[in-house]
Every structure is written in C-alpha cells, then in structure tokens.
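Subject: for your reference before the review

Hello V.,

The reviewers asked for a structural picture of the protein, and I figured it would be easier to keep everything in one thread rather than splitting it across files. Below is the amino acid sequence we used in the manuscript, unchanged from the supplementary table.
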Amino acid sequence: MMVDAMKVLVLMMLVVAVGGGAKRGGQGEDTLCGDCRDLEVLVAKMSGDEIERKAAEHHGKGSIRGAGRVLCGGFCSGTLLGGRWGGAASNLGVVMKEEGLLNLAERCYILASRLDPAGPTHAYRRGNVRMAMQDLETARKAFLRATRLLPGYGDAYNNLGNCLMSMSRFEEAGASYGYAIRANPKEANYYVNMGGISARKNLTAGIQYLEQGLALNPFFPEAYNNLANFKRDVGDLEGAVEAYKNALKLMPDSGDIMVNMASAKAYLCDWRNRKSFLKRIIEVSRKELRDGKKLSLSTFYANIFGVDLELLKKVAEYHSNSAFSSVRYLLPLKPWFTADVREGGIRLGILSSDLTNHIVGHGIAALLPLMQERGATVLCYALSSDDGSHPRRQIEQYSKLTDIRDWSTEAAARHINADKLHVLLDLNGQTKGNRIEILSLRPAAVQVLFHGYAGTSGANFIDLFVADRILVPPEFSGFMTEKLMLFPPAFSFFLVEDYGRLDDREHEEDGEYAARSVGKELGIGPSYFRYASFNSLYKLTPSVFGAWMKILSQVDSSILWLLKFPSSAEKRLRKEAKARGVDDKRLVFTDLYPRAEHLQKKSGASLFLDTLVYNAHSSAADSLASGVPVLSMAGSGIVNRVAASLLICTGMEQTLVRSLSEYVALAVRAAERGAELAKGWRRRLVQRRWETKFLDRGGWADRFLSLLRLSVDRKMGGPNDSRAHVIAAR
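And here is what came back from the structure prediction:
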C-alpha cells in the first residue's frame, strides 16, 4: 500500500533524532544523514513509490533505523526529488517546530529548499526557526532569500523587519515593514509593527499606524497593548488604561498586558483591586520563569510593585540573559587594556539614555569637570537625542560625546571597544532606554552599573555595582550578580549634582523666609505646617497615603504639598483623601519646577514625607541640600534604602524610622509645639550638610576615581584582586 509522504518523513527524522550517522563529506548542511552510503546504488534502481513501500516494510517490522536508512539512501541517490517532496519536507518542519525540535525543523527546511529551490516558503520558515533559536544573522539572510524568490512576500518582509529590530537595525526594519504594507495593505499586523518602529522617533505617527491596524482588525490584543503604551508615553494615562482594558478582554491571561495596566494605574494612583491584581502578576511571573517562557515583568516595574529581592534578581537575570541572546551571534570583543591608571590616565566611558535635562544628566554634568581635573579622560555615549539643554552642553564640553542612539548593537559595541576604555559605566541598568545588549559584547574590560538604577543588573557581563553598606548591607550580597564598589562610611554612594551657592536666606536655619516666600503660591499662611513629598506619584501606595491622611487628621493647620507628577493623578488622590475623612483642599498640587527654581521653591517645605516601597532618590538629595528634613524608613530592598544612605551621610539618623506607625507618630510630633522638633531638625541639617561629606563633591570624586583604579587593578590580577566580593575606598 502507498505510504503517506509525511509519515515516511517523520520516520526518517526520528532516525536522525535517535542517532543517524554523521554528515556525508562534501555535502555539508544539506545532507540530513550520512548513514546510507551503502544503499545508494540499491535504491537508485528503485522508484519513489518502491522506496516508500520498502521503508514501510522496515517500519512494520519495528525497524525505524532501517526505514530511515532507505529514505536517506533515496534522497542521497537523487531518486526522491521534486516539489512534491520539497513541500512535504517543509510541512514536516512546521510540525517539528511546533514540537520544539528546532534543529530538526531547520534540517527539514534545508532539505525542502534543496528539493524545491524556487520555493520561498522554505526559506521563510527557516528564517522563523532561526529567529526562535536567536541566530538573527542566519534568520536575516533566510528572510532576504524568501523576498528575492517572491518580491511581494509580505510576511517575509514583516518578519525580516522583526529580525532587524532585534538586531537594533532600526532604519532597515522600518523599510522592511514599509515593503510589507505595500505588498499587502490589508494586513493589520504590518501596521502594528510599523507603529512600533515609527514611535521611536514620532509617537503620534506610531499611534496612527496602530489605529490603522486596529481598524483592519479590532480583535488584536497586542495592538491595543502597544497603543496603550504609546498613549501613556504622550501623557494620556486614562486613554492608556482604556486601551489596556480592551487588550485584557481579548487576552485575559496575558502577563504583558497585566503588567502594563498595573503600571499605568500606579501612575494614576488608581488603587482599585491593586492587591489582588499585583498578587496575580507575581504568580504569573513566577510561572513564566518556572516554565521557561517569555517574562512579562520588567525589573523597573518589579521594584514599583515591591517584589522581594530573590524574585527581583531572577527577573533581572532573565532580562540580561535575553539581551545577550539577541546578540550572541556576534563574538564578544577583546578589550584593550593597560596598567597606566594609578596616577591619572584612566579612560572612562559613560553609556546612558539620560545625558539630557534629566536628573542623571545634571549629576554627570557636575561630575565631569571634577574627573577632568583629576586627569581622567571621559567619553560619553548618548542613547537619546540632543535636547539642547545646559547639562548636554556641559557634557559635550568636558567629554567626547558620541550619539549612538540609532546605531546597531554591533556598531555601537565596536566603536566603544575601539575607544580603548579602562572602565565603562552603564547609567541605565534595566530602566527605560537601556541598551544593555551592547555591554553583553564586552566592549570594555571593566563594566560598572552606576547611578541611574539602584539594584542588580542580573548580568554576568557587568562586573561591579557602585554602593555603600547602607544601600547594600552584607546580607543583601547574595541578591547581587555584581561585586560591589563600596564608598567609605562617611560618604553616600549617591552622586549629588552641583547645587551651586545655596542662598543663606532661602536656606536659613529656621526656614521662615522660605515659608513666607512659598506660602502665597500654596495659598496658606506661614504658620501652616507644610508636609511635602516631591516624588513621582507612581511611588505612592495606599498604605503610605493612608498614613499621610492620619498625619493630616492629627495636625490642624497643616497641608500636604505634592507635585502634579503626573497631573492626571490629582483627581484620584483628592477622592482618596475625602474617602479617608480629610478635606481634599488640604492637598496642594503644584507643577514641576524648572531646575533653576526647584531648590528655592522646595525649601519652603517643613518636612519631606518619603514613600516607602520605592524611596525618594534625587528628590531626597534635593530636599536635604535645600535644608528640608526627610522622614524615611530603610526597607527590605535596595530602591527603598537610598534615602537612608543620604540621611546617615548627613547625620540625620533621627528622621529614619523602623515602622509605619513610628513614621506617623514622628511626623505628628514634628509639627507639635510650634513645630519645635522640625525646626530643630532643620537647624541641624543646615549646619551638618557642610560639616559632613554630603556636599563634598571633590572628596566624593577622589573616592570614586580611587574605586575605578582599584577595579582596573583587580582586573589585572593585582594585590586587590583575590576573590573578595567588594572593592572598598578609604
């Protein structure tokens, strides 16, 4: 009886899977199995149908190897040729791919292309399987072959665009999506992908492409998810949440959509069903990690949602490994190295998406002149466009700055490598705008996570993390993949910006001048106690907001001063205040202040109330510099210990509490008896900020440069090498 070609090919592939012979010499990857050489002469005399029957006889006797050897002999002798067998081999590859047998699937596609050279589908399918194997360069070539065989092959152009996106070849990816749309303007998926690439430069254009895609297919959850992401980026948080809801209706078990929706609601301070929703997200994330599936939870949102350090490390490791997988087809680079770093001479690189009018940009702009004075050569690599700001101009003045935001991963890594750095500082970690895959190619001998992100990168290609023992106590070391560069106890790890000359009146010890100057803007008299929190509102949680309302309830003539950051959260917070029995007029919201004014304005606060799941970082430093005491608590993570590091550095441990109840009680006490306690804190802080190392930027730069030199020394196997987990400055 005639045996179906697909079943026979399955038999043959099983033989290969259980140990068919080696490849035949001279045939290379086009030969599936070489264990049939002695059968070539025999099967050459048989027809294709006879070979099928012979293979079936072997199978009927339980000899899978025999069946496979007959089939291999048929292929190698040239008997089994033609499109019939090419299509069958290609379809078998689809089955193999679905079963997770990627290597066998690819071998089917290679065979199919040999039997049917003009078939574009075989090359397209090979590209898909190579994408799944993270071999992006081979995938790119396969997709290109498919488009050359069939110039109107929209799916091949689309997947070529996806491949190029993964390779960070963004301009080429956009062109590929454009070809796909022209080939088939009715395919919604092409518009969605084009929207993704367009939004890199123009969010409005990205939204328009997504809306075109949804008009073609209104049942496209991924498109709603992307639309929501872009709406959030343009500030339309309410519209974003609605789009996430539409996406979640269509895909209720999607971790990606759940995480995105939870984060948007965090920015809006929409806490409805928060506890159960976050619990579900963490359960889904653990399952994704356990099952080896794509992880939906990012490290940034994991910190916002307050996950424990053990899970946070696993999340970070997953994303770092994924970044490396996307470029593993490229060989790691060989870093240049020299010992000439002990007396100046160090070549330092800085990689960041925030070398702009951003708090990170201000800090780096203040650091660079100090590094130059100490003999360091600094080269900066920008991952964002030039915003024309003062920090950007200063960074250009004191370093060699290269804009690499649109460069491919390989081009960026090779350029950095050619700059012959001793140390490369990554200021993004896994925050928005990062290009951590560049570091995975090892362009520099020593790679350090610094300043922009407080937490582990999870990457085995990032060597060191800048910290102090308050931020990362010894018991946290097991949750870090990096070794630690520790500042001495007198210093905080945190890089403060150049605050310039602090006006004595604005920062006087009793704060009365500042209170009078800001009172009119806030609509209150100077006798009011001004609790404030200048954090981004996504850091706020129901428990902390509840604590704030308890404080206001116990302190008459007090207000809570918040920033419209974002402004769309104001309405919800006013509603939450009323629900807790507090007049919402006691919540005073102001716009973000320009950097030139923010210290003077914020110095009018009586007491800064910190958020506790995710601390104030730069906001805490700004408040302390302006003479405003900060009430905080050292948490069980890293992002909620930054304020504690700054408080201990400034000698203000008395405003560091151990529990939420103590937090409320101390905040209330601070305002009693004419705010006697708060004013005492302010007098101590105004004095201590100069006496401590908090504003000693020169001393901080000396220790930092010492740490960098020690890291290079250890890399070379010097006396500080050993197997120590830390590098410590004196």
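For the response letter, the relevant points are probably these. Residues 1-8, 10-41, 719-724 have pLDDT under 50 and may be disordered. The two ends are 85 Å apart (CA to CA).

Happy to draft the paragraph if you're swamped.

O.
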